[in-house]
Amino acid sequence: MIKVGDTLPACKLMEYVEVEGNGCSIGPNPVELPQALAGKTIALFAVPGAFTPTCSAKHLPGYIEQVEAFKAAGVDEIWCVAVNDAFVMGAWGRDQKAGGKVRMIADGDAAFAKAIGLTLDLNGKGLGLRSNRYSMLVKDGKVVSLNVEGPGKFEVSDAATLLGQAKAA
Hints:
The protein has helices at 53-65, 67-72, 86-96, 111-115, 159-168, and strands at 12-17, 27-32, 41-47, 77-82, 103-106, 119-122, 128-131, 134-139, 142-148. With 169 residues, the protein is an alpha+beta fold. The protein has a single domain (12-168), classed as Glutaredoxin, CATH 3.40.30.10. The longest helix has 13 residues, at 53-65. The protein starts with 11 loop residues before the first strand and ends with a helix.
């Protein structure tokens, strides 16, 4: 499992982009690590799945509500990562009004979750292999703080905890 001081692995995640930029940018776009992390401080949190009860009612909304406080604490971007496809993450972001506040990043095949050792096996519950629930503060690609939840818990990966760590970093 990844730990404080480690560098995030070179993985390709995906993000659904709704506004046109350079070229044909509308739709799923690659988010290449470590390029996307270079020179930035990222508040990254992961959830087991988009549109799931705790993720939709508590986890994502907490980060959306605290976006200005995170910026004041020196965080450049907030990322929500889930083992869903980019279309689902885009729809969930629209539903939660995350646009311009939280980047909704898809780890469609769980490559990132596997690479950092934070997978959650929900095969018996019809959800397959997912990401564990966690949060981390990442500076220039390195993990500064890491908060991994126990099974079925939502106690340490919330926005308030990571915001406190960002202020202290």
